[in-house]
Amino acid sequence: MMKSMKRQKLVSEWIRHVLLTAFVIVYLIPFLYALYESFLSKADINKWVWPHRFVLENYVYVFEAGLPIWYRNTLIMTVGIILGNVVTNTLAGYALAKIRFPGSRLVFFLIIGTMMIPGQITLVPIYSMCVKLGWINTYRGLIIPFMTSGMLTFFMRQFFLSIPNEIEEAARIDGLGRFGIFSRVVLPNSRTALATLIIFAFKDSWNSFIWPVTLTNQLDKYVITVGLNALKGRYYEWVNISMTGVVCATLPVVALFIILQKQFTQSIVLAGIKG
Fold it and tell me: What gap in Å lies between CA 219 and CA 179, rounded to an integer?
C-alpha cells in the first residue's frame, strides 16, 4: 500500500514537472526565435544557420535609428508612472482597508467599476484634456493620466487586509499616529506587495503603445514601442531588425521580473488570503 502511494506521488510529480516544462517551452519559443533572428544577417533571414554566422549589425542599426532616445523617454515615463502608482495606490489601498469613513464602500465599488471600463473608451476624453492643457508631445501627458490604477489600488487593499489589526493596535499603544503607523509599521511589512506593484506598473507602462502613439508625433518623444513601430515601417523587408527591436524592448521586463520574482510570488499569495 505504501509503495503504491509512493509510486502515485512520484508519477504525479513527474507529470507536473513535464507539464510545467512544456508551458515554459511554449512561452519561451517566440522570444528565443526573436533572439535568434536578431543575430542573422540580411542574407540569412528566415534560414537556420550555425552560431558562427551570427552578426551584431542589427543591433547597430537599431541603436543608430534612435534606440537610446526611445529608451530614455520610456524610462522617464515608466519611472514617473511607477512613483505615482506607488504613492496613490498605496495610500488609497491602505485607507480602504484600514480606515472606516463615510462612503468608503461606495468609493471601493467605484474603483472596482473603473476596472470594468475598457481603456479605449477613456482614450478620447483623456486626449481632449491633454490637448486643452498643452500636454501633446510632453512627458506630463505620458505620465500624469496613468499615475493611479484601479486594479493596483484593489491589489494593495487586499494585501493590507492581510496585515493583522493587532500590529496597528500595538503601534497605537506605543504612541504612533495614523501616518506613523502607516510609514513605520505597515510599509516596512509591505515590501513584497510594493515589489509586485512596481512589476505591474513597470510592465504596463514599458509595454504601452496605444496612448504614446496617440499622444506623440515627434521622433524625440517616441517611447520604445512607438519607435519600434516606426522602425518596422522603415525596415519592413528586414525581419531581423524588427526582431532585434523586440529583444531590446523585452529584456528590461524580463530582468526586473527575475530580480523581484520572489517578492512577486509571495505578495500574490498573501493578497489572495483575505477578501
Answer: 44
Angle, alpha carbons 97-100-101 (nearest 5°): 125
Place of cell 517551452: 25
How many CB atoms lie under 10 A from the CB of residue 75? 15
Cα–Cα distance list, 227 to 82, 117, 156, 207, 222 (Å): 21, 28, 33, 12, 6
User: Per-residue pLDDT for the chain (275 aa), expressed as one digit of tens each?
Assistant: 556 666 777 777 888 888 888 888 888 888 888 888 888 887 777 778 887 788 888 888 888 888 899 999 999 999 999 999 999 999 999 999 988 888 888 988 888 888 888 878 888 899 999 999 999 999 999 999 999 999 999 999 988 988 888 888 888 888 888 888 888 888 888 888 888 898 889 888 988 999 999 999 888 899 999 988 888 777 666 788 888 888 888 888 788 777 777 766 665 665 554 44
- Prediction pTM value: 0.81
CATH number of the structural domain 66-271 = 1.10.3720.10
User: Residues 225, 207: contact at Cβ < 8 Å?
Assistant: yes
| Euclidean distance between CA atoms 138 and 130, whole angstroms | 10
Rg of the Cα atoms in the chain: 24
Instruction: Give helix then strand counts, H and E, for the chain.
Output: 13, 0
Domain boundaries, the chain: 66-271
Give φ, ψ of 257 to 5 degrees. -65, -40
